[in-house]
Amino acid sequence: MLLVVTYSQAARTTLRNVCRSHEATVVRRFGRAALFEATELGAFLALRLREKHGSEVQIERTTPLNEYEDVPESVQEAAAAYEKRDKPSTPYAKFAAGTDHPDPERLDASEL
Amino acid sequence: MNAVVAGRTYEGRAIDVDAGVSAAAVARAVRGEDVDGVSVSCPSPTPVHDYVGLIPPVDAFDLRGALATTARALGHEAPQREAIEDLRTQLTEFEVDGIDVAAIRRRVAEAGDDEAHLRERVAALRGRVQALREADGETAADAEAELESAITELSEVETERIAAEQSLSRAEARERAARDRRERRLELADRLANLERGARADLAATVYDEFTAAVATLPGDGDAGGEPGEYDGDAVTAALGVARVAPLRAPVVLAADRFDDAATAADRLDAPVVRLPRP
To answer: For a 10 Å CB count at each end of chain B, is N or C smaller?
Structure first.
């Protein structure tokens, strides 16, 4: 899908109007951002916004994340284990220390 | 005030015009615009005139805005004024260094296309060289030279594509930082809009009692309620009420059947009036 984020009052207003008049193409709206369908119409609407407001409009292409495909097992397991931790107040760094789970620095340094 | 309409000259604080000219045209002439067949010499209109210079108003009547402007004309100041001015200054001085990422995106796309074409060409040439070699070793020389040069070209284009991609990711990183600034600017702009809304409401409240009294005494059905949002009545009555409260030196152009003549209107509104028949 296409994620469109606006960074000015004018661009936000245009986005609101576009969303109002193209409900079928707008998958979801969040305040000053919206998700458009990944169709040529979605792209057309997004490009119109960029044409009108230049760099006050950010357009990203998004895809759903399949964690079983895109995320290393160690990360999946760490997330699952951390959510099952005994003490909710334990920070992840402490939780991971001395275990096989990756530490936060390593996670941060590894591209997906 | 001195007005010339369709060749006839009028003078005084209250003028009844009966010639075939529209109220909107007279209002434009009051604002100093060049209008065919109409000229009005009068003091310059003040911001309140944007609201009550022409009655009935053409667009929806913004009562809160009209009253806020009136309050300012009467010397009232909003408590938010300093904060508003401060934010306005911050916003004018706020700069965001944008870069034209579009040009770099295009370069990446073009380099990618070039590379794909060349790859196909190299594959085709390889096939041809292979086929020629199998048929007759001698005649492959030309095709081999061609293949060689295509391979060289491909490696150049590949280098260019990689360079373009790197420059795009650098540009995107800079854009990310610029977006943080834009977000901050938007926050300031939103805060300014909120303060301005608050200031309008506060200013309008300072003259609401006068407005309520004016509406009660002027012709027309209007119930002021306790604040601008509660006003219940037509736009003409609201505009007349504001005109009564506001200090006006430029004339109100009136095309509504609320007064017997311009003199009565000028008296009741305490303002100069050009009155035209209702269209």
So the answer is: C
Residue A112 lies in a domain: no
Taking CB atoms and an 8 Å limit, are A8 and B178 in contact across chains?
Answer: no
A91 touches chain B (CB under 8 A): no
How high is the ipTM of this complex?
0.81
Longest Cα–Cα distance of chain A, Å, equals 55
Q: What is the pLDDT of residues B199-217, one digit of tens each?
A: 999 999 999 999 999 999 9
Tell me the per-residue pLDDT of B119-157, one tens digit each, with 9 for 90 and over.
999 999 999 888 888 887 667 788 889 999 999 999 999
- Mutant choice from B186, B192, B194, B197 vs A, greatest count of A C-beta within 10 A: B186
Most B CBs within 10 A among A56, A61, A111, hence the mutation to make, goes to: A56
In a domain, A80, yes or no: yes
**B-proximal residues of A, 37-66, CB under 8 Å:** 54-56, 58
Find the radius of gyration of the CA atoms of chain B: 36
State the Cα–Cα distance between residues B102 and A56, nearest whole angstrom. Answer: 13
Task: Look up the domain containing A14 and give its range.
Answer: 2-61
Ramachandran bin of A25, using left for φ above 0, alpha for ψ from -120 to 50, beta for the remaining angles: alpha
Question: pLDDT tens across B109-119, in order?
Answer: 999 999 999 99
- Overall domain count for chain A: 2
